[in-house]
Amino acid sequence: MEKEQFYYDNKIVKMFLWATILWGVVGMLVGLLVALLFVFPGLLEFTGAENAISWLSFGRLRPLHTNAVIFAFVGNGIFLGIYYSTQRLLKARMFNDVLSRIHFWGWQAIIVAAAITLPLGLTSSKEYAELEWPIDIAVVLVWVVFGINLIGTILKRRQRHIYVAIWFYIATLITIAVLYIFNNLEMPVSAFKSYSVYSGVQDALVQWWYGHNAVAFFLTTPVLGLMYYFVPKVANRPVYSYRLSIIHFWTLIFLYIWAGPHHLLYTALPEWAQNLGTVFSVMLIFPSWGGMINGLLTLRGAWDKVRENPVLKFFVVAITGYGMATFEGPMLSFKNLNAIGHYTDWIVGHVHIGALAWNGFMIAGIVYWLAEKLWKTPLYSKKLANTHFWLGTLGILFYAIPLYVAGFTQAFMWKQFNPDGTLVYGNFLETVTQVIPMYAMRAIGGTLYLTGFILLAINIIKTAKAGSTVEDELAEAAPLKKISGQRVAGEGFHTWLERKVVLFSILTTVAILIGGLVEIVPLLLVKSNVPTIESVKPYTPLELEGRDIYIREGCNNCHSQMIRPFRSEVERYGEYSKAGEFVYDFPFLWGSRRTGPDVHRVGGKYNDNWHFNHMLDPRSTSPGSIMPRYAWLVKNDINASNLENKMKGLVSLGVPYSDEDISGAKQALLTQAKEIENNLRQDPEFVKNYGSSNIQNKEIVALIAYLQRLGTDIKTTKTALK
User: Fold this and answer.
1) Cα diameter, the chain
2) Where are the transmembrane segments (predicted)?
3) pTM strictly above 0.85
4) Distance between CA 9 and CA 104 in Å, rounded?
5) How far apart are CA 344 and CA 86, in angstroms?
6) Residue 47 in contact with residue 54, Cβ under 8 Å?
7) 194 phi, psi to nearest 5 deg
8) Which of 121, 339, 447, 448 fits 395 for a cystine, CB–CB 3.0-4.6 Å?
9) pLDDT digit string, tens, across residues 632-680
10) How far apart are CA 629 and CA 634, in angstroms?
């Protein structure tokens, strides 16, 4: 059969390559900055503590770091690999060059929008989904463009059977669309403010159904697809086992979607949902390790190349990191281990094994290999690449190991009792100061890793300068001849399925929907899952504004609002948290880490002056604290211009505000604010410093109102269950 000539589009691949490098440096730099704030809390207070800059505080920089690394660095790295490999696996240029450019520039625009809005405090607060509603819409639109381009390329392919990498790309495309849309259903109340349509327990489950599977289907499945293409290519070896790749794919996408609840063990989530998440999380180890084994054994007979080829070095450590992270994840879903690890720095170390080793090293290896292909010249310096490898590997070790030590230190210090039944470390700060040396080592690890990546950037820039500028690559392949839809002689079922792309995609969709529907639908529809508590009332207007300030400042990045039914937690914080207490929490704020203590029962624990001084200078009330100062809260006026719209939006979500509540909201806000100011003026020191200043209209008063409300809706007693 006569072959057709066509050109691969290498320009779009180069565009994503440069974006990957740029955002890699930016994301890691912000990460290092955030790590240094744990050791030097006042590091970014350039203009003095009293003039601390709001957009440089930890609570605002932390989501910027996670979004920059996940969606900017890894996201562009994934698209880099997909755009290169898809064209060659399908023997076709991408479906539409214009769509490719719209995808690229649209994605970069979203990243820039995130980089502007997150430091400004415009956030939904939901982990890995912090972007506000206009940007969410843009993400969906750009994802649709990517989807049309990928599906169009698959449909015009010249290769009959779709290779295993394409299976993973299809699963990623479908699942991320489902996850992102359902998790980010929200009620807009202004141009950059919205409330999740889910509240409390339901919001927690939907968020971690998304959060866990964002890791699964954005940071794992597409990178597995890249592994199945690039590892055999670089090693010049076929994939170890076709049959194992089939088992790996279908079991992984079916099981992963069920595992989200293991992030919520011992919380107010119903027991049946927790147990379901645990069972499927433990089962996940089998397909995950199947993928790791398939990747490593693909190198059989090529280990001598690993010594010489820096790209293969990166791949080996990446796949090993994947194996470690996917062993640790199921282990952490066992309740006895989760009771130790959850809310500690162990989880941060675990996550970064995946991010730094699996994602970072796999993408670095791909970038090095593609540089030679795209610019048709040898890599500028293999020595520099090897130096990057060793710096990066040491960086991972210096990052993760101290955090594992910190995690176990925190867990055991939190749970230790004296013979008389009191906590050995009753002051939470004792556990913070104990792990600061580990935070310093983590910062050293981050510095090493970032330095290695900067060497990569230098290496690729030098390679590009020495190479060819040709953007299109000539290729040829025979056009695809139509054959019967029936299975032909000697064709296995899965081989047949690989040429029935529409059916393949439908089966993939069914596989990922089953788990989500079984978990989420009963929790949304069956009221007995969230027993109501009559004394729980909606937030007052001032408390509502204070809660939004709490969200804006990212306080839930460091403070949980979920007391688990452990003796140690009940003794330390008060009565364990009940599902019915969160019915008016749009969104939920249970947190995933305790750099500071849990605040669910903080209401009434300290007076208003303590909170005022604590926000202005945490060290004045809590010596040794690493919490940032929030001086701007005393300077900023409460912006209640959207208060009525907020309350009306919440009414549409089921919050029982009356028409009188809404019409009188601003007056009610002023009345409660005046009460708090009067309380503050009981302190002579406050009067001395603020004299006749009008504090009642300042943001700090709203935040105090919210904090004093927390956990006060039910009568609390110290009753431990576990």
Assistant:
1) 93
2) 21-44, 64-84, 104-122, 134-155, 162-182, 208-230, 242-259, 279-299, 311-327, 347-370, 390-414, 434-458, 501-525
3) yes
4) 13
5) 40
6) no
7) -150, 165
8) 448
9) 999 999 999 999 999 999 999 999 999 999 999 999 999 999 999 999 9
10) 11
User: In angstroms, rounded to a whole number, what is the distance separating the alpha carbons of residues 128 and 212?
Assistant: 10
Please state, as a whole number, how many other Cβ atoms lie within 10 Å of the Cβ of residue 303: 12
- What are the distances in angstroms from CA 79 to CA 20, 300, 412, 670? 9, 28, 43, 51
Contacting residues for 89 by C-beta, under 8 A, at least 6 apart: 159, 162, 163, 165, 166, 229
User: Which two structure tokens, joined as six digits, stand for 463?
Assistant: 């390679």
Which residue matches tokens 């994802």? 143
First to last CA, the chain: 72
> Left (φ > 0), alpha (ψ -120 to 50) or beta: where does 654 sit?
left
Tens of pLDDT, residue by residue over 476-534, are: 999 888 776 677 767 788 998 998 999 999 999 999 999 888 888 888 888 888 988 99
CA distances from 315 to 68, 103, 224, 235 (A): 23, 27, 11, 10
Residue 308 CA, chain-centre distance (Å), reads 35
Could you tell me the two tokens for 111? 């990243």
**Residue type at position 707:** L
- Identify the bridge partners of residue 6 per DSSP, sorted by sequence position: 475
Separation in Å, CA 302 to CA 235, 307, 313, 314, 357: 6, 10, 12, 14, 21
In order, the DSSP letters of 526-563 are: -GGGS---TT--PPPHHHHHHHHHHHHTTGGGT-----
DSSP-derived letter for residue 487 is P
CA 245: distance to chain centroid?
A: 27
Could you tell me the two tokens for 266? 């011992």
Higher pLDDT, 85 or 717: 85
Residue 3's contacts (CB-CB under 8 Å, 6 or more residues apart) are 476, 477, 478
Listed in sequence order, the DSSP H helices in 425-559 are: 429-466, 493-497, 501-525, 541-552
Give the sign of the dihedral formed by CA 84, CA 87, CA 93, CA 96: negative
Local structure of residue 49 (DSSP, 8 states): G
Q: What is the pLDDT of residues 672-709, one digit of tens each?
A: 999 999 999 999 999 988 887 889 999 999 999 999 99
- How many other C-beta atoms lie within 10 A of the C-beta of residue 96? 15
Tabulate helix, strand, coil % of the chain (nearest 5): 65, 5, 30
Q: Which amino acid is at 620?
A: S
For 105-114, how does the pLDDT look when each residue is reduced to its tens digit (9 = 90+)? 999 999 999 9
Range 239-272 burial, b when 16+ CB lie within 10 A, else e: bbeeebbbebbbbbbbbbbbbbbbbbbbbbbbee
